[in-house]
Amino acid sequence: MQEISDIKVTEAIISTYNKKLLEHLQNDVVIAGGGPSGLLAAGTLASKGYKVALFERTLSVGGGMWGGGIGYNIIVFQEEGKRLLDEIGVNYEKYEDGYYTADSIETVAALLVRAKKSGAMIFNLTEVEDVMVSDGRITGVVVNRSPITIAGLHVDPVSVAAKYVVEATGHPLEVLKKVVAKTGIELATPSGAIEGEKSMNAQLGEGALIDNTVEIAPGLYVAGMAANAAFGSFRMGPIFGGMLLSGEKVADEIDRKLSGN
Ligand code: 48F
Question: Could you tell me the pLDDT band of residue 52, with boundaries at 50, 70 and 90?
Answer without folding.
Answer: very high
